[in-house]
Amino acid sequence: MFQTPSGGAGNGTAATDSGLMSIGAVLNALRPEFPDVTISKIRFLESEGLIEPRRTPSGYRKFSAGDVERLGHVLRMQRDHYLPLKVIREHLDALERGESVQLPVVGRQRDGTTAQEPSHGPSTTRIGRAELLAAAEIDESVLAEWESYGLIAPVEGEAYDAETVTVASLVAALGRFGIEPRHLRVMKAAADREAGLVDQVVAPLKLHRNPQTRAHAEARTQELAALTVELHAALVKSALGVRLP
Prior knowledge:
With about 240 residues, the chain is mostly helical. About 50% of the residues lie in helices and about 5% in strands.
């Protein structure tokens, strides 16, 4: 039913003897098509009800091939159509019930055609303010508050980086636990420091005369970013005494 992501669950080296996969194996299966996906992202999608992996008696997640296909479909719909998670969930549930449903028109698709977007490089897709509001399911007042605390900022004019949709979804999810935007300023400051550290490491590559070396800087940045995100999550859970499945 769903398109299997490149490098997906069919890889026998990633699967366990029971045919189920660990979250690390799922990450490796998805990354060829979705290089920015992280373990934290997969856990967040689970918390939002997009997937329901099995749990071992000790609490570790185990994913089936169907779970991986569903994850790939979710990530593809976010990346290509900027759909909010609620809409994606309803769409997938309808497909699994065998219903014939049309993909909602949000983001890049308008009036039955695919809008052409300006090229800003491989990882800098832009999203408009109206698209961000629709994808995050928030109104102008909420977005203005988040911007006032520096949690979200346009990259130019009223254009935002596509990753802002993920930021907005996470801020909203934390808000349901009573964590307000003002509480998140410390996390934003920590993220800025981590980004600065990554920039320092890759700066020599970006300034190199060799074009291939400069191109390698993008891949190195993504790799370091994924590692810092996972380390940050591990440090927080370790400080809280939470087990890392």
